[in-house]
Specification:
globular
């Protein structure tokens, strides 16, 4: 049987620190801090519930991050 892969380490960065920032600035900052995937979503977007290590999600309203979460 093949070994179970070890997911990459996530940046030691709190998603809460991005709330209130301009969305474009927040995305650049997240990438500099080591997040491999950053996605911005409008409020109410339907998304799947799979967890992706290294991904940071932003809910963006009027160009500002109103919510941020891992996965």
């Amino acid at each position: 049987m093949a070994p179970i892969p070890t997911p990459p380490a996530e940046p030691q960065d709190s998603p809460d620190g991005y709330v209130g920032l301009d969305a474009e600035h927040a995305e650049r900052l997240a990438r500099r801090r080591g997040w491999s995937t950053v996605r911005s979503l409008p409020p109410g977007t339907v998304i799947t519930m799979e967890y992706r290590a290294g991904r940071l999600n932003f809910e963006v309203r009027d160009g500002r991050v109103v919510r941020a979460w891992k996965g």
